[in-house]
Design goal:
Its EC number is 2.7.4.22. This protein is an alpha/beta fold. About 40% of the residues lie in helices and about 20% in strands. The two termini are about 20 Å apart.
């Protein structure tokens, strides 16, 4: 395997499948099988998941809700998604731990870096919920932060498109895909990979990002194996 330890970033919307909101059990099961497949090769897997399928703090704030309250609700949504993914992984026979940035001891472990590293070394999948634990920070920022803390080799951003394009491929049939692009080029071209805070943190720590289609069966294993899937962003 090309990568020994990865941080997989999933959006909350990815769990919806074809639904308008909530969690699609079939999509969850598919993800669990794909993740199990790579753990069986010895890859150490950590996951950060968003909460947009349940609640998005920014959307709440735009409707008049206090932004801090909205972001706390969004953090709880990521914990709900983390519990769902943990259940699906354990149903598939994958030992899993859920750690949260906000303390909910009856539900999950608090995030402790040394404990997270020990779980990974023992072959357990570690899901990080609750974002960074702070309002005004996205789960993209949480993904990069946790990846740096656990010394991951790469961030794999699983989306519904097969990489980074110069335009939205769902709207523009002539959009051109990049197989490889530098951090500087992403910024210069104004491409949307992650929010600016997360992207800059990744760049400063020389942590590569691969954006790929998570919904295509077998893609996760191909990415971890080093196949040219999706778009790789590095220095």
């Amino acid at each position: 395997m090309k990568y020994k330890r990865i941080l997989l970033k999933l959006s909350g919307e990815a769990l919806m499948g074809n639904r308008q909101y909530g969690i699609d059990p079939e999509r969850l099961s598919e993800y669990a099988k794909d993740i199990k497949e790579i753990t069986e090769t010895g890859v150490e897997v950590a996951i950060v998941i968003g909460g947009g399928n349940i609640f998005r703090g920014v959307a709440g704030a735009s409707n008049g809700m206090d932004r801090v309250q909205g972001d706390h609700m969004g953090m709880l949504a990521t914990v709900i998604n983390g519990l769902a993914l943990q259940s699906a992984l354990e149903d598939a026979g994958v030992p899993t731990r859920l750690q949260t940035a906000i303390h909910i001891e009856e539900v999950a472990e608090p995030f402790i870096r040394r404990r997270a590293l020990r779980h990974l070394e023992k072959g357990r999948v570690v899901i990080f919920g609750g974002g960074t634990g702070n309002p005004y920070f996205t789960t993209d920022s949480a993904a990069v932060l946790r990846a740096i803390e656990i010394e991951a080799d790469v961030i794999l951003k699983g989306t519904r498109v097969d990489g980074i394009y110069n335009a939205d491929p769902e709207k523009d049939s002539k959009a051109i895909k990049f197989d490889h692009i530098s951090f500087d080029d992403v910024l210069r071209k104004g491409l949307k990979v992650m929010d600016t805070t997360a992207f800059t943190l990744s760049q400063e720590n020389e942590l590569p990002i691969i954006v790929f289609d998570m919904n295509k069966k077998g893609n996760l294993l191909k990415v971890v194996s080093g196949e040219n899937i999706g778009t790789k962003v590095n220095l």
